[in-house]
Amino acid sequence: LAAFTYRFNRRFNLRTLHTRLLVAAATCVPQPQRVIRSAEYHC
């Protein structure tokens, strides 16, 4: 339960939100547009 609570609360830390978003965007692998579009239908 403590691990879940830590991860849940960490998602909403507003001080580090921008930094974490930039790191995630810079380190992710580019995806083809068809993969991105197919995610719209599965949600």
What does this structure look like?
There is one protein chain. The protein is mostly helical and 43 residues long. It has one domain (2-42). It is built from three helices and no strands. The chain has helices at residues 2-11, 17-27, 33-42. The longest helix is centred in the middle third of the chain and has 11 residues, at 17-27. It is extended and about 40 Å long. The chain starts with a helix and ends with a helix. The mean pLDDT is 84.
Structure, briefly:
It is built from three helices and no strands. It has 43 residues and is mainly alpha-helical.
What is the 3D form? extended
Radius of gyration: 14 Å
Mean of pLDDT: 84
Counting DSSP E segments of at least 2 residues, the number of strands comes to 0
Count of individual helical segments:
3
The termini sit apart by 28 Å
Helix content: over 70%
| Percent in strands | under 5%
Instruction: Describe the main β-sheet briefly.
Output: none
Q: How many structural domains?
A: 1
What's the SSE pattern? HHH
Instruction: Kindly name the structural category.
Output: mainly alpha
Low-confidence stretches: none
